[in-house]
Amino acid sequence: MQAITPAALVYTPHAPRAVVEVRGAQQPEACLMGGETLLPAGASLVLDFGEELVGVLELELTADAATTLELVEGEDLEEALLKEPFPPEHWYHQPRDILNLPAGPQTARNQGRRAFRFVNVIVHGPGAVRLRRATMTLEHAPVAELGTFVCSDTLLNDVWAISRRTTKLCMQGFYEDGIKRDGMLWIGDYRVEFLCAHPLFADAALARRSLELFAQCRHENGSLSAVALLAGGHMYPRISYLGDLATPGGLHQWVLDNYCADFVCSIWEYVLHTGDTALARELAPVVHGVLDFLDKVDLAVTKGGKTFITDNQPDDKDWWGSRSALAYQIAAAFADGAKLADLLGDTPRAESYRAKHRARLPQAAAKFGDPAKAGCRDDFGPDATRSWHAHAAAFLAGALTPAELRAIYPLLQQDAKVRRPMAGFMEFYLLQAWMDAGLVREALEEMRSYYGQMLRSGATTTWEIVDRREPGIDHIVPAGRSHCHGWSAGPAYLLPAKILGVTPTAPGYREVSIRPQLGDLTWAKGEIPTPHGQIRVSLTSPTTGEITLPPGITGTLQLDHRPPLALAGGQTHVLC
Known about the structure:
alpha+beta, nine-stranded antiparallel β-sheet
C-alpha cells in the first residue's frame, strides 16, 4: 500500500475576496489590494475567502514591536466570531491559533492545516501589526475533473457543484469525513464519498488505499473499527490540542455494526466501478470475517448510538439507531457478499450468503413490522417510532419492490411522526431508494429542500447535518458542526447515476444499464468517466437525445413502456 505523502498533494494559493468585520483597523481593505492594513493592539478584522478551503494560511506582515496575534478560523462567519464553546477536556476545540510574533517583517503561518472560509485576525498587543497580504494555500489529492452534469434546474446544478467541491476537498491522504472536523477515515463516510468521487474523478487509487486501511483495523471477532485510526487514518494530530491520535484509545476500537455492513457493500461497489478484482481477492478474508461477525449480531442487544448509528436524533440532537434499519443493512451486506463470492468463484459461500440474505428479510418484517404496509418500526414494541430510514433500508435490501415503495410513499410522507433524515449519509440512502423506485420527481424536490437550505445560507460545500425545522445555518454545535462533510455530497453520484441513468452492471463498467429518468426536468446532460473512457449522455426529453459509449463497454437502454435495447460500444446512439 503506497502512502499519500504531502509532496503528492496539489497546492493552489487563494487570496481573500473581502473584509467582512472590522474593529479598530485602519484601511482594512488595503491588504486585499497590495496595500497595508494597520491593526493596533485590540484591533481585529475578518477576512472572507469566498469559499471553503483547506490548507495553510500565510500572513505577510510587519510587527512594530513584539506582539501576540490570534487567528480564529470559521467555516461560516458566526464560527469565526465565536469564543471557545467547549470545556478543556473535550476532544474537539474551536479552530484558533495563538502566534507570538517578534518585531519586524515576517510571514506568519497558522499552526498546522486548517479548514475554513473566514478567518478572524485579532491583535492582542502590545505591538501593532501592519498586514500586507493573506494567502490560503488549498491542498487536496491530485484528481482530474472528468465527470460533468448540468440540467434545466439551476438550483440542482448548484447542488451538484457544491457536492463536487466537497468531495474534492475531502480527498486528502485518504477519504476524510470532514476537513475541519474530524479529518478521519470513517467507513460510513467513505462509502458515500467513493460513490461520488468515481463519477467525478474516476478515483481508484485513493479508494483502494482507504479500503486497505480499514482492513488493517480488524478485530479478533472479525469486526472492523468504525474509524481507521489504528492504521493512521487521521489528520489532526498535527494540531497539538487534539491529543495524540497515534496512541490507541477508545475511539480506535469503536465498532459500529452498520459500518461493518457498509464495508462489505463498499468492497463490491469499488470493484463494480473500478474493475479491480485483485483487491476483492486480497480482502476476501476480511470480508468473510466481517460477515461472520454480522451474522452473530443480536438485534436485541446492540445499542443505538453505541454499537450502531442511524441518524442524528431530531429532538436532543444526539445519535440514535433504528434496529430495523440495521437489520436490513446487514441483510444488504450478505447480498453484496454473495456477489463478491460469485466474482471470485466461491460458489458455496455465495449460496450461503444469498440464503442468509433471503432469510433475514422476512425475519426483520416479523420483528419490526411489514415495510410493504408502511409499518416498519425502528425498535421492538408496537409504540416504537417509524422512520423513512428503515423503509429506505428495507427497499435497498430487496424487501420492497419499486411498486410497493411507491405505494407506501404517501402514507409515510403524510405522517408527521415519521422520522426523516438529518445526516447527509442517510439523506443519500433515502434519495437513492426513491430514485431507484421511480420516485424521481419526489427525490428532486427532496434534494431541493435539503440542499437548498445549505445554499440559501451561503454554503460552498455540503454540511454534515441539516435540520430543516430551523431556518438558516444548522445550529447543531456551533464550533463542532462540519460544513464540508463528504457523506453529504451524494448528488455528485445520484444526479448522473439516476437522472442520466448510467450505472455499471459488471465490474469496471464492462456492461452498463442506462435508464434515464428526468423527473420534472426538461433536459439534462453529462459525462461519466469509466476505466474505458467517457460515457456521454444528452437528454432533450425523457425519450430523446444521444448516448455515446466508448469502446469496451456494452449497454442496455431501458425506457419506460419500451423493450430493452442493446447498445454497442464505440458508437453514438440517437434516441427518438
